[in-house]
Write a structure and sequence with these properties.
Helix content: over 70%
Number of domains: 1
Number of strands: 0
Number of helices: 7
Distance between the termini: 35 Å
Radius of gyration: 19 Å
Largest sheet: none
Length: 229
């Protein structure tokens, strides 16, 4: 316990780096796997195996995404950049554990009737969280709090802003993967050029926003590491 208290910030920083690596690396893995998922020249069984691989990679990326927020808020309180500590930090980690349990439950339930309600509930966590983060970040950058935004402190609110914007892109990519779930059972009924074209369009959208996604992830990491303003 004494070791943890002495090295609390260093441990949190290490975990933050690990979570960021899983986020960025996982998204690259899903991006590359998607080429096999949408390839109509491959047998359907093989495409489904690649889709399952994409979900297995994606769950680690999502674990990183979810964990970055409480780690960042915890470090922010230690640095004096966000005001909520003590019981609020305890509540935050309890909510993180509940969010993580929901995310992994949805992952483990894929292919069963429980997947859709769990996945929909997980989507709603983002629909509620993203506007909250955007309001807090923009308000703080404009000098209205609650985050510190004085000289040399604005990087923290800016990092929250780019993180929230990355979550928006993540929602778009989640919707693409939801469409995979809907289309492949229909493709199992036999060749269907119209469905293949629809799948191709959805993947094209996903790939186009993925580039912006990586820029936002790297920018978020840059703000945290360099603290430029």
């Amino acid at each position: 316990m004494e070791f943890l208290q002495t090295h609390e910030l260093a441990i949190l920083r290490w975990l933050h780096i690990v979570a960021m690596v899983y986020w960025l690396g996982g998204e690259w893995g899903v991006f590359q796997t998607s080429y096999k998922v949408v390839n109509p020249r491959l047998p359907l069984d093989e495409r489904l195996r690649h889709m399952d691989t994409a979900y297995r990679i994606d769950i680690m990326a999502r674990t990183g995404i979810i964990t970055l927020l409480p780690l960042g808020l915890h470090m922010g309180h230690i640095w004096g950049l966000q005001p909520l500590g003590g019981p609020w930090l305890v509540l935050m980690w309890i909510l993180w554990a509940a969010w993580m349990a929901l995310t992994w439950s949805a992952f483990l339930a894929r292919g069963t009737p429980r997947f859709k309600p769990l996945s929909d509930l997980e989507d709603w966590t983002r629909y509620l969280l993203i506007p909250t983060l955007l309001v807090v970040a923009v308000s703080s950058l404009l000098g209205h709090g609650p985050l510190a935004a004085g000289e040399g402190e604005r990087w923290y609110a800016a990092k929250m802003l780019t993180y929230a914007l990355a979550l928006v892109i993540g929602v778009i990519l989640r919707l693409v993967m939801h469409e995979w779930q809907k289309l492949f059972p229909k493709l199992a009924e036999g060749p269907n050029p119209a469905l293949e074209a629809q799948l191709g369009r959805s993947i094209a959208i996903g790939r186009s926003v993925a580039y912006l996604y990586w820029v936002l992830i790297l920018t978020t990491a840059f703000f945290g590491a360099v603290k430029p303003f």
